[in-house]
Structure formats: structure tokens, C-alpha cells
Amino acid sequence: xxxxxxxxxxITSFFCCVFVxxxxxxxxxxxxxxxxxxxxxxxxxxxxxxxxxxxWKLDYFGRMDTRANISSWTKDSNxxxxxSFDSETGVVKELSLGRQCLTSLMANSSLxxxxxxxxxxxxxxxxxxxxxxxxxxxxxxxxxxxxSKNGFIGEVPSSISxxxxxxxxxxxxxKLTGRIPxxxxxxxxxxxxxxxxKxxxxIPAYLFTMPFLVSLNLRQNHLSDPLENINxxxxxxxxxxxxxxxxxxxxxxxxxxxLANLMRIDLSFQKTPYTFNFDFLLxxxxxxxxxxxxxxxVVGTGSENLTHLxxxxxxxxxxxxxxxxxxxxxxxxxxxxxxxxxxxxLLWNLPSMLHVNLSHNSIDSLEDRLVLLDVGHNQISGKxxxxxxxxxxxxxxxxxxxxxxxxxPFWLKALxxxxxxxxxxxxxxxxxxxxxxxxxxxALRIIDISRNSFNGSLxxxxxxxxxxPLVNIPQGYRWPEYTxxxxxxxxxxxxxxxxIHLRIKGRSIELGKIPDTYTSIDFSGNxxxxxxxxxxxxxxxxxxxxxxxxxxTGRIPxxxxKLKQxxxxxxSQNRISGNIPQExxxxxxxxxxxxxxxxxxxxxxxxxxxxxxxxxSFEGNINLCGLPLQESCFRGNGAPSTPQTQEQELxxxxxxxxxxxxxxxxxxxxxxxxxxxxxxxxxxxxxFYKLFRL
Length: 694
Prior knowledge:
Oligomer: single chain
Shape: flat
Radius of gyration: 38 Å
CATH superfamily of the domain at 451-483 and 494-633: Ribonuclease Inhibitor
């Protein structure tokens, strides 16, 4: 018996020792090392509240972008959102705490106790008006550090130079000042992003010769040319260089042209009076060059690999003839210059050319063999060239702000890939419908023919056969609004288009990029008449509809209620009459409505979207009532008192008045007749009987 008890005791003691001593190898039910969990909870407690949506948002391409949720951390958690642990040692190796609404970062924060941390993302928080703590220098195992979009101020602490294992450093979109921090010892860096700050002084020359550096972004600062000579190595790995919106001079071109592998350069909008010359450049691998916003003397680039060339606002007076040798060029922007005359034929002979922006020049004639053509705000006159019909790949056509005098280009429907047509502010005239021609654009999703002289009425079936992108409801998420993030310039997807101005929600808005699910129809500023076609209800994916400043009459079609994607509706400055269809209150995405200065009557549909509009959206009508107008649709007794009710009550009132008038007119006559009859019967009975032969 004693031996039996002793055996049980020894076995129990053995397993107890195993459980007690093996916490670090996860043999206990608790899954994470206690010391690491304690640091995480201490870190959580440093931040007072989490009053924002930490779950999701749509990224630039509309995909779901999930993020961590630090508020879910507890001591009993089976997992820690945004935290990765090392599978062997159990220490925290990665913290992804971007967009957590964190508002303070103390100098002695628990964050700096994670001595083995390798990846740290604190981007898009709210550390406004506070400096970057020097404690980051203690995280010597860091390989990636992202502190972007936080509002940090002051100089970068010198302790950042301790992070000798760093390969990625992102301090962009803050308010950092002083000189660029010393990064000389961080020889493993591959990506440096210091853009959108307030750094000043000369750029350190060593940045261009770091052995592993691939991308250097210094955009939008107050930086000037390096003081030292740049001696780039033949083995330099630098591919992407962005120094736009700084204080660089033309002298920077020669040394950086020696970077043998450089593929992308952005030197646009330097705040200096110098002229940038191309005559001595040695670029061999360059694919994308942006010198917009500078004074440029155009000679040549030295690179036959160029695919993107942007020379907008460069004070150029002649077409850059050197592009004839750029056989791979497919994106050319020479807008906002002083180029005159005809576009040379060589442009259309380039085999790879897809996108040309010639807008805001003095071009007076036009040729066409393209995908994107933007010649807005020039001096083009005459008719729209019929030869455009040969451009079977054309997707984007913008000729706004010229002097084109022509009828509606029905023949464009032959271009089966055409998605965007902008004819705004020209001299187009005549009807846009024809009984002989069926207007059925195959791929159209944006059409702007505003501010012309189009006229006539639209058949009721006008929109019945329009394109699939306008008729079919888009699947999945709705299109995200473009934020204007300059970083996306280098990663422009093939389906995006150049910047255009569209009238949205009563204002002219520039869209830097146009999402491929965006749809818009703008017929405003013409002389259309007749009723708005009921077939408008077929355009179920329509987001913006502007028919303002015309002479449309009749009633608002109730089929508008079928446009469930509609966000902006402008019917103002017409002659539309009758009631506003009450079904419009079901348009839940409707953010802008303008029906002012028509002949509308009755009650305004009551919904959050419509009732929340300003009074000016419904002013200038005959007798509208209800919010947002002050006129009530109810009488003192609570009964409705709309114009429609008054019209229904009018016949009853007239009927009562007619009976009163009859009673007043015929009553005395009847009484007088009866009195005469009675007198005759009483006093002259013989005569009475003789007259009627009774």
C-alpha cells in the first residue's frame, strides 16, 4: 500500500513539475507567453478610447481592407488581433496597428519593451502635434517600420540610426521638420518614403548610392540639391525616384541620369526658375519621366524604353519631336502648354500609343489610331473628324471647350469600346434622336453633352437600348471615391482615365481617376423640350443624372424610382409640371436633388435624403409644400391641404355654388307663377276652363 501511494505521489509530482516549468512551450492551456500578453495589455491600456470603426474599409480598388482591433485584447484571448508571435520563441514579432484611432504615444510606452519586434505598422493613427519618441531606437530587431499618416511633428530622433536591420522605412504624410535624419548606417534599406513632410535643406548624396535601395520617395518637402557630388555605383539597385514638389534645380538631372537601373523619375513642380534640358541625359533604363510644372527645353531623353512621359505645364511652344523614337511610349501628357497648329502625324504612327492628353493648348486641327484622346480646351473648329470611326480601340473621347460646330455624332456608336464621351462647351446643335438611327452605344457609361445647342424632344423609348454598363446593376460593392493619393500615379491601372471635370451634385468636380463602375449622364444647358422619357428607368446603374437648364415639360417620370444607384439628380430650370413622384423617397443613395424653378405642385416626397436638401432645391415652383420648404401640406384641422387636394375639392365647391345660384334665380319665379295660378283658379274659373278646354 505504501509503495502504491508513493508511486502515485511521484507520478503526480512529475507531471506537476512538467506543467509548471513548460509554460514557455505552450503545454499549459494558456496559449501565449504571459510576459508578452502582459506587455500587450499594458500597451492597450495606454490608449484611452477607441471611438472609430476598426473593422473594415474599401481600399483604392474597392476591395475589403481588414485591420486589427486592439479593443478586443483581453488576458483570456485565444488570439490577439494584429499581433503575430514567433512560432519558436513565442515573442511578439509583428504588430499591425494601423488605423486604430490611437491618440498618444508616450516616451516610455510599453511598445518599446518588445525587444524582438521585426515588423511594426502604426500608420493612420492620431498622434497629432507630438514628436516621434526616441524609444523606437531600442527596437533594434526591426526590419519594417511604418509611421505614415499620423501627424507627427518635429525632427526625427537620431536614435533611428540604431535600426541597422531596417529594410523598409515609411514616415510619409506627417509634419516632420529639420533635415533628413541620418540613415547612413542603415545599409539594408530597400524602401525609404519621407514624402509629404516639411523636411528642408540639401538631400544627402549617400541616399542615391545605398547598396540595396530600390525606391526613394521625397515628394512634397522643402529639399534642395545635394551639396556633395553623387558618385553612383554601376551596381546601384535604385529603380524609383520621386522628388516632386521640392526645390531641385536642373543640375540634379546629370548625376541621377548615371543611375544605370533607374526606371521611374518624378521631378515635377520644382519651385525654382531653372530650365530643365534634355540634351545631355544618359538614361538607358528609364520608363517613366515626369517633369510637369517646370520650364523644359525639349531635345531628347536618351532612353528608348520610355513608356510614360509627362510634360504638362512646361511652357512648351512646339510639339516634342523627339518622341518619334519612343516606340514603346503609350502615355503622353503635354497639356497646359502653348503648342500651336496641327498635331504632327508622327504621334499617330507610334505603335504603342494609347493615351494622349493635349488639352489646354492652341491646337487647331486634329487627327486620330488611339484608345484615349483628350484635346479639351484648344481651338479646334469645324466638324468632329469622321475618321475617328477608324479608331476601333477608342475608349475615352474628350473634346470639351473647343469651337466644334457639328450635329450629334451618331456614328460614334460604331466604336464598340467607347466608354466616355465628353462634348461639353462646343457648338454642337440639332436633335440627338433620329427615327432612322437607333442610338445603342455598347460600352457607354459616361456621356456629357452639356452647354451646347442641342434641341428637340426625346422619344419615350430613347434610353431603352442603351449600353449594358448603364442598364445592368453592378455586382458587389459600390464604387469608392478617389481620394487623390499621389502614390497611385505610379501604379495607374490600365482601365483608369485622365483627369476630367464632371458636373456632380451641382458643382464641377475634377475626377483624378475614374472608377470603372462610375456612370453619369449630363444633358444640361441645351434646348431640349417635351417630356422626359419613361425609359430613363432602364438605366439601373446610373449614379449621376443632370437634365437641368433645358425646356423639358410634362411630369417627372415615376420610373426614376427604379434608379436605385442614383446619387445626384438635377432637373432644375425646366418647365416640368405636376407632382413629384412619391416613389423617389425610396432612393436611399440620393445625396443631391435639385428641382428648383419648374412648375411643380403638391407634396415633396418625405425621406431623409430628400427632406435633408436645402430649400433652394425646390424653390421657384408653383405650389410645392412639405420639407425642406416651410409651406405646410396640412390645414389647421390636420387634413391635407396640398394643391392636389384643393383641385379635387374645387368641383364640389362649384357644384354647390351652382345650386345656390339656381335657387336664387328660379325660386322667386316659381313662387310668382304659383300665386298667379291660384288667383286665376279662384276668380276666373270659367275663362280658365275655356282656355284649356276642360
